[in-house]
């Protein structure tokens, strides 16, 4: 048996953002707070959204100070803003960081406490202010997950917070908002989405519902990831990628992520590597480590991603999965930790701490092959070979 949690409303397709007033009416929101970041302001997306609301006669206010890889301190100002007026909903506009910030603001603004009090293994299922999520990248799938990630800057730890309380009530999935995303961010977020689908499918918490979403996501992402990286104006590929990232989000939110994400968060927290990039650095090595424990499942991933032929044996498909993941990192110009500028001495000094943080996040225990701390340390060190 599986418990499946989804947004109540999803508006999907080019131009879907114009449906925002109807979405607000259907949840009886009269005064939403828009939570976003400075990039959305510069790109003119905030203006566009506000004019849609103005034309519909809806009063709104805005908080634009969310930051990439949000910290506990960074969301406090958002909570203060939320409490400054009688807002009845939160509109999250932006990439995963803006949506994750909005989730924390919507829940902690209503229930108080510190991020630490909401961290895994606690399950927080009480609804905060209703959230309408409008993603502008095809990546985290945060618009349809019951997860938010906030960094505790005091301990350099990315805290995973889970529960139905973090699920948006509505998601507006409009690929036109992703057309102007730069190639580097397109690649990083796209790899994140692909990793969600693979990890949901091989997770020990996988179930028939999450499997069907994960396979559909991989079929959309596999053939289109290189295309959107090389030609951001390819609308067909952009549409496939954002739909794929949403389905991958649904898949992992209703199963789990696994070892890649468990080990990726500490790299992000310690060395400020964008989330998708640290996933990409780890994905080939973690797949190699895990492969034998779930060969049929990894082979099915390779076929769904179109990295292997439907007729390939499991062994051949798994081999092709490994080689394609390595090739893909090269094609998408994913840097090694060294090329990214990480100091090797510092990295090696904290590998043990990173492995322990990975373990306490709970994600590695969902992996088909559950690693020891020493095995995670070995994988971290392999990234430098
Ligand atoms: Fe992710």
UniProtKB/TrEMBL annotation:
Occurrences of domain Alcohol dehydrogenase iron-type/glycerol dehydrogenase GldA (ranges): 8-174
Family note: Belongs to the iron-containing alcohol dehydrogenase family.
PANTHER family membership: ALCOHOL DEHYDROGENASE (PTHR11496), ALCOHOL DEHYDROGENASE 4 (PTHR11496:SF102)
Name used for this protein in its record: Iron-containing alcohol dehydrogenase
Database matches in InterPro entries: ADH_Fe/GldA (IPR001670), ADH_Fe_C (IPR056798), ADH_Fe_CS (IPR018211), Alcohol_dehydrogenase_Fe (IPR039697)
GO molecular function per UniProt: alcohol dehydrogenase (NAD+) activity; metal ion binding
Keywords: NAD, Oxidoreductase
SUPFAM superfamilies: Dehydroquinate synthase-like (SSF56796)
Start and end residues of each Fe-containing alcohol dehydrogenase-like C-terminal domain: 186-383
Pfam families with a match to the protein in the record: ADH_Fe_C, Fe-ADH
Lineage top rank: taxon: Bacteria
Source lineage: Bacteria, Pseudomonadati, Pseudomonadota, Gammaproteobacteria, Enterobacterales
Cofactor: Fe cation
């Amino acid at each position: 048996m599986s418990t499946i949690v989804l947004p109540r409303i999803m508006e999907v397709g080019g131009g879907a953002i114009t449906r925002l007033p109807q979405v607000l009416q259907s949840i009886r929101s009269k005064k939403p707070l828009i939570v976003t970041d400075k990039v959305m302001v510069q790109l003119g997306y905030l203006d566009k959204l506000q004019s849609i609301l103005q034309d519909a006669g809806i009063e709104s206010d805005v908080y634009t100070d969310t930051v990439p890889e949000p910290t506990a301190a960074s969301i406090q100002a958002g909570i203060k803003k939320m409490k400054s007026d009688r807002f009845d909903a939160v509109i999250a506009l932006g990439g995963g960081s803006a949506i994750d910030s909005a989730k924390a603001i919507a829940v902690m603004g209503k229930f108080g406490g510190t991020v630490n009090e909401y961290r895994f293994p606690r399950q927080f299922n009480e609804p905060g202010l209703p959230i309408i999520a409008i993603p502008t990248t095809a990546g985290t799938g945060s618009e349809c997950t019951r997860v938010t990630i906030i960094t505790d800057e005091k301990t350099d730890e990315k805290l995973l917070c889970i529960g139905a309380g973090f699920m948006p009530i509505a998601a507006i999935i409009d690929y036109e908002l992703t057309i102007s995303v730069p190639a580097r961010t397109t690649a990083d977020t796209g790899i994140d989405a692909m990793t969600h689908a693979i990890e949901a499918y091989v997770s020990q918490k996988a179930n028939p519902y999450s499997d069907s979403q994960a396979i559909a996501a991989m079929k959309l992402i596999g053939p289109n990831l290189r295309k959107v990286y090389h030609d951001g104006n390819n609308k067909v590929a952009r549409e496939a990628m954002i739909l794929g990232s949403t389905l991958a989000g649904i898949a992992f939110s209703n199963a789990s992520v696994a070892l890649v994400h468990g080990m990726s968060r500490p790299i992000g927290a310690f060395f400020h590597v964008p989330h998708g990039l640290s996933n990409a650095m780890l994905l080939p090595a973690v797949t190699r480590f895990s492969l034998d424990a779930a060969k049929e499942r990894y082979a099915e991933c390779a076929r769904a991603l179109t990295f292997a032929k439907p007729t390939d044996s499991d062994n051949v498909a798994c081999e092709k999965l490994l080689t394609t993941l390595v090739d893909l990192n090269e094609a998408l110009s994913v840097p090694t930790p060294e090329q990214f500028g990480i100091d090797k001495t510092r990295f090696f000094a904290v590998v043990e701490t990173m492995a322990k943080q990975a373990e306490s996040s709970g994600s590695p225990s969902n992996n088909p092959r559950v690693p020891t701390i020493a095995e995670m340390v070995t994988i971290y060190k392999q990234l430098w070979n």
